[in-house]
RNA sequence: GGCUGAGUGGCAGAGUGGUCAUGCAGCGGAUUGCAAAUCCGUCUACGCCGGUUCGAUUCCGACCUCAGCCUCCA
């Protein structure tokens, strides 16, 4: 298996530390607003990656954190006059609901920063003992990037380049402009006592502390959205390596951004579409397939047309299996499975793997190659990506309608009466009436079924 | 400005030094009361300019355009 390593900018043969086991840490969300489809992209990508690793037989330990201490949370909570952790708890619940709707599997461990203050403090202490952390007078505690010779390796940036960057606020307590906070001194908002005084952890240290706690000082894969590469992941590496003198994560993976109108979808740009909004119109698997039709490292331009295209593709798969009963016992088509795996394990090439499945589906439809074993294998492979898991009926009737099921069925029955009596004008009128409500009819083998358009 | 990535047919999107991606849409046909669904057939491509090569969309160089990061961000 090959995986692109952001640290070396090369595809590398994947060799986990322990044979057949994978330890993976993914940076999760800061819960202070609804989950948007840019987040969904990242977590669906990693969901599929973890699923695939398990599918081919790896034992995976998957950790995905929640950053529940953050200035934005504190500020928003203050605006609403509720305790910060109550505020974030509310959005954690929303996040879990959204992820469940999207069939994103829960990680094995989902640690929160607020539960790991002790680990964070002791990591900062060891950085302090080794001379990587400093403070002036009673200032915040900073990490001294000039003491860490590999600083900038992940982002491919030198200290000079970092100095040259225009920074709006220069903190006079810092040795270098790019030094970052390990412990922020504060008495307002949510704080904990520490050897340096009342305060809270800086952003970055939590992920170093929690990944090491659950996966050890050296583990296989660390990932997240591309926007976390610098400074977040760069800083994580600095802290973890300096505190432990170990390698930390061997492989770094970053998912590409979701764009909307040629800009990255992000909370700060306020150009986001929430998961809840999308799921009003589209089945969750449509969103999943929309993402999988593009490689995880490439940017995706969000568009309604793109989602509609993904829907048509998924419709075809569901239609193919709508009349096929999958037997409980069948012989898996090994060569098909192997072909799929060999494509997918080249840096998780989902678009190529799906095109392979589409080609097989096409062959099956044409009646040229309809061995049940092969069809069943196709279903297994789609399922492995988190697709084709819903009942056909549910899938095609997903969404909101203006009409009740009873009303729809009454109209269908009226139309069929009209057809029996050759009153085709009336029949077509009823069909148009339903079409205007977003319901399409199909007359199959003397039976009429309906779908949401 | 620095660093990184990308520009493929109407659209999405892989890939490759010389035979086909794949799918959606379109078009023609079968089927249907007419549609839909399904089936058969089918068109359109590699940003621009040079170079290497017998041959380049694929390798090299310049240019143009776009995006991401450099400040919070998945």
Fourth CATH level, the homologous superfamily of the largest domain: HUPs
Whole-number count of domains: 3
Give the second-level CATH assignment, the architecture of the largest domain: 3-Layer(aba) Sandwich
What's the gyration radius in Å?
A: 26 Å
Specify the CATH class of the largest domain. Alpha Beta
Global geometry? elongated
Q: How would you name the oligomeric state of the polypeptide chains in this document?
A: single chain
What share of residues is helical?
40-55%
Beta-strand level of the residues, as a percent range?
A: 15-25%
Helical region count?
Answer: 16
Q: Taking strands numbered 1, 2, ... along the chain, how are they ordered across the largest sheet?
A: 4-3-9-10
- For the termini, the CA-CA separation is 40 Å
Extended strand count? 15
Mean pLDDT: 93
User: Uncertain regions: pLDDT < 50 for 5+ in a row?
Assistant: none
CATH topology of the largest domain: Rossmann fold
Q: Structural class from helices and strands? A: alpha/beta
Largest sheet: 4 strands, parallel
């Amino acid at each position: 298996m090959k995986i692109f390593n952001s640290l070396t900018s090369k595809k590398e043969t994947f060799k986990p530390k322990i044979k057949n086991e994978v330890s993976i840490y993914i940076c999760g969300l800061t819960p202070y607003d609804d989950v948007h489809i840019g987040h969904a992209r990242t977590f669906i990508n990693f969901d599929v990656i973890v699923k695939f690793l398990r599918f081919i037989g790896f034992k995976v330990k998957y950790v995905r954190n929640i950053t529940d201490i953050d200035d934005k949370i504190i500020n928003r909570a203050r605006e609403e006059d509720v305790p910060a952790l109550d505020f974030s708890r509310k959005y954690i619940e929303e996040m879990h609901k959204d992820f469940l709707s999207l069939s994103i599997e829960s990680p094995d461990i989902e640690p929160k920063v607020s539960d790991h203050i002790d680990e964070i403090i002791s990591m900062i202490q060891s950085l302090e003992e080794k001379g990587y952390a400093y403070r002036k007078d009673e200032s915040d505690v900073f990490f001294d990037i000039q003491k860490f010779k590999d600083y900038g390796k992940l982002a491919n940036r030198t200290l000079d380049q970092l100095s040259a960057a225009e920074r709006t606020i220069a903190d006079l307590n810092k040795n270098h402009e790019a030094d970052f906070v390990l412990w922020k001194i504060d008495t307002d908002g949510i704080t904990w006592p520490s050897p340096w005084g009342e305060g809270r952890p800086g952003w970055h240290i939590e992920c170093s502390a929690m990944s090491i706690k659950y996966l050890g000082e050296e583990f296989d894969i660390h990932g997240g959205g591309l926007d976390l590469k610098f400074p977040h992941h760069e800083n994580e590496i600095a802290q973890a390596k300096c505190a432990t003198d170990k390698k930390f994560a061997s492989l770094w993976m970053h998912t590409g951004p979701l764009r909307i109108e040629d800009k990255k979808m992000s909370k700060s740009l306020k150009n986001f579409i929430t998961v809840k909004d999308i799921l009003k119109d589209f089945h969750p698997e449509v969103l999943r397939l929309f993402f999988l039709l593009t490689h995880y490292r490439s940017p995706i331009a969000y568009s309604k047309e793109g989602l509609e295209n993904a829907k048509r593709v998924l419709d075809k798969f569901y239609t193919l299996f709508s009349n096929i009963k999958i037997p409980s016992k069948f012989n898996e088509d090994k060569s098909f499975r192997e072909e799929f795996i060999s494509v997918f394990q080249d840096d998780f090439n989902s678009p190529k793997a799906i095109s392979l499945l589409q080609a097989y589906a096409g062959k099956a439809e044409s009646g040229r190659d309809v061995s049940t074993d092969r069809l069943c294998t196709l279903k297994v492979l789609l399922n492995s990506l988190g697709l084709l898991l819903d009942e056909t009926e549910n899938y095609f009737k997903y969404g909101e309608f203006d009409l009740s099921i009873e009303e729809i069925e009454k109209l269908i029955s009226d139309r069929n009466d009209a057809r029996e009596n050759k009153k085709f004008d009336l029949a077509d009128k009823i069909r148009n009436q339903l079409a205007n409500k977003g319901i399409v009819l199909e007359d199959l083998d003397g039976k009429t079924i309906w779908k949401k358009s």
